[in-house]
Design a protein that fits this description.
The protein is of the alpha/beta class. It is about 40% helix and about 15% strand. It has 5 domains: about 130 residues, Glutaredoxin (3-Layer(aba) Sandwich); about 200 residues, Rossmann fold (3-Layer(aba) Sandwich), CATH 3.40.50; about 80 residues, Ubiquitin-like (UB roll) (Roll); about 90 residues, Up-down Bundle (de novo design (two linked rop proteins)), CATH 1.20.1440.230; about 55 residues, Alpha-Beta Plaits. It is built from 25 helices and 19 strands. Helix 7 runs parallel beside helix 11.
Length: about 625
């Protein structure tokens, strides 16, 4: 349909009804994820193959092929989802398009070879909702990702998009909106968990004008891609949330600060913004009212510290992305010294749902202190990696073993890090903790933006602490001494320990440095940076002592403390180890025991991983 301007709420409703009538003739839709990760695994080529197949069979009016955002099941991409049946096909190739289209057109038995298989019974599972990965989730935000083409505003309008905006502009005062968000209990999903309604109220109470709203899409945590997937898959949801928030706090100008490393998210957001402007949903006189709101998209340069609110605002103003002291709150003096509300992508995405379905509906999900759902990127040594959305209060065990399917290769679970590089590493005894803002903080970690990295028995926790400290050291803006010098000193101590040169005095130094950084750092990057160190010392102190006292790395990761040898009695002479050795340190004749020349060994572990007979020993 032509992108005519929507003049008022009645126009919007009429457009939605017309779109639904237009789509009524389509019997089935095949949804293909073409987000960044899915394109890398062939999603774009798969989408084109389905388009060709539907056209070739003359089914264009009966079967629609839609490119969508992330479906979450990253481990099994590319996937094809047939709606409304809910049949999900995994690891699909362009060559499979004909069989899937034929099955969708006839309504007959799904293509069994492409279905999910129960890992215990081997039975095929056809429907998405019955697959364990999906069955235990509550996909309140992500569900629409499989229903809409992010490049087509009509898809979003057809499923109820911008109805929340129409509701507030025609029947709610700004205070009503703030009250609804407050009573829903929505807490900021960017990491701190500050009550969103309270933040909006503080900004609204400020007399100074203009007021600004900002969407923080500067997602910098290693392994995290929640915000990117929302922006790529459903950008209008975030725009609608910002419009509602702007109305509530009395703002006419908004900004989306998005990482330049997210080119597809930038593209989809830019297209969505242009389409919303064409429809009259962004700009002047929105839906026939006197409410006006414009949005500028700003690209970040990739500085991790710009995820911090004041550093982000400094970057928006064209200055170096450095934080400032927190005694002046950004809701009072933020961007350009004016009252500013900053929330992250996922927080804004929750707002239209609260308005449309009511705060009572929202508050009944999750825990009392942390209502709603949370999106996590579940990555690491887990069988099923992907994007998961669960009610807050679900346990770590339910997420990792129930949804994620447990640890790869039947290895033993060792730890999970939540909250990004500044989060803590939690051991097996914490698996039954509920995942909410307060419980994770009490355990020494934090919610963060939603990264969840799973580690197995082959992970050295001292080395993990060193890795994250080094990352934070490189990303520190260097403005304050406690963070700049504290991280440098921490990295030196941890490197000394992993090299076998540490002492027990180093453990006390790490504790002292942590206390200093928590007390005196300027922003959360510095105050939270000790978390990986403190939690690994707290829960895995025996590993630190093994490195210090025994000069041994129990996980066999720290090269200076590892030696590989071949057990002659177990060696079959298969030559698998010698073929993968990069330094030619393994010698021996075929079908006879081999030996490792220690002066040549790089301690890379390639031989250990290649041996199928357990002959290569790590000590």
């Amino acid at each position: 349909m032509g992108k005519t301007r929507v003049r008022d709420a009645g126009d919007l409703d009429a457009l939605r009804r017309a779109l639904l009538r237009q789509r009524a003739a389509v019997r089935r839709t095949i949804a293909i994820s073409t987000r960044s990760g899915c394109c890398g695994s062939g999603g774009a080529a798969l989408f084109r193959a389905f388009q060709r197949e539907v056209k070739k069979r003359g089914l264009a009016g009966k079967i629609a092929v839609r490119q969508t955002g992330c479906h979450g099941f990253c481990e099994k991409e590319p996937t094809a989802l047939v709606l409304p049946d809910g049949v999900l096909y995994l690891k699909v190739s362009p060559a499979d398009a004909g069989d899937i289209v034929a099955a969708a057109a006839s309504g007959k038995t799904p293509v069994e070879r492409l279905l999910y298989r129960d890992p215990e019974t081997g039975a095929a599972v056809a429907h998405e909702k019955e697959i364990p990965f999906y069955a235990q989730q509550q996909r309140t935000l992500l569900d629409a990702n499989r229903l809409v083409d992010p490049m087509d505003i009509d898809d979003y309008i057809a499923i109820g998009g911008y109805a929340g905006l129409a509701k507030v502009l025609t029947g709610m005062s700004p205070q009503d909106v703030i009250e609804s968000v407050t009573r829903a209990g929505l807490r900021g999903r960017g990491g701190g968990g500050f009550p969103t309604g309270r933040k909006w109220q503080l900004c609204r109470n400020c007399q100074s004008l203009p007021r600004y709203v900002i969407c923080n899409a500067d997602e910098g945590d290693p392994g995290a891609y929640m915000d990117r997937s929302l922006l790529e898959g459903n950008p209008h949801l975030i725009l609608e949330g910002m419009l509602i928030g702007a109305y509530a706090v009395g703002s006419s100008q908004g900004f989306v600060y998005v990482r330049n490393e997210y080119p597809l998210a930038l593209k989809h957001l830019t297209v969505a913004l242009k389409q919303a402007q064409e429809r009259g949903l962004v700009g002047e006189g929105i839906l026939g009212t006197d409410f006006a709101f414009t949005v500028d998209v700003m690209r970040g340069g990739g500085a991790f510290v710009c995820g911090e609110s004041t550093a982000l605002m400094a970057s928006l103003e064209g200055r170096a992305g450095e934080p400032r002291a927190k005694y002046v709150h950004t809701v009072e003096k933020g961007l350009y010294g004016q009252p500013t509300v900053l929330n992250n992508v996922e927080t804004w995405a929750n707002v239209p749902l609260i308005i449309n379905k009511g705060w009572q509906w929202y508050a009944q999900t999750g825990s009392k202190a942390s209502p709603g759902t949370k999106i996590f990127s579940l990555v690491g040594k887990v069988n099923t990696t992907g994007l998961v959305e669960v009610p807050l209060g679900m346990t770590l065990r339910q997420i990792i073993f129930g949804i994620g399917g447990g640890i790869r290769g039947h290895k033993r679970f060792k730890a999970v890090q939540t909250g990004g590089p500044s989060g803590g590493c939690l051991p097996e005894q914490c698996l039954d903790l509920p995942v909410d803002f307060d419980t994770l903080t009490e355990s020494g970690s934090m919610m963060g933006s939603g990264g969840m990295i799973v580690m197995d028995e082959d992970t050295c926790m001292v080395d993990v602490a060193r890795y994250f400290v080094r990352f934070l050291q490189e990303e520190s803006c260097g403005k304050c001494v406690p963070c700049r010098e504290g991280l440098r000193a921490m990295e030196e101590v941890l490197t000394r320990i992993t090299a076998g040169n540490g002492t027990e005095e180093d453990l006390r130094s790490l504790e002292d440095l942590s206390a200093l950084m928590k007390d005196a750092s300027l922003c959360a990057l510095g105050t939270m940076a000790p978390n990986p160190v403190l939690t690994t010392m707290r829960y895995f102190g025996d590993e630190y002592l093994a490195h210090i006292r025994e000069k041994r790395c129990p996980a066999g990761v720290c090269r200076d403390l590892v030696q590989y040898e071949i057990d002659a009695a177990a060696c079959t002479g298969c030559t698998a180890c010698s073929r993968v050795c990069p330094s030619h340190a393994i010698q021996g004749e075929k079908k006879k025991p081999h030996v490792i020349l220690q002066d040549r060994c790089l301690k890379c572990g390639a031989c250990f991983r290649a041996c199928r007979f357990g002959a290569v020993k790590r000590g």
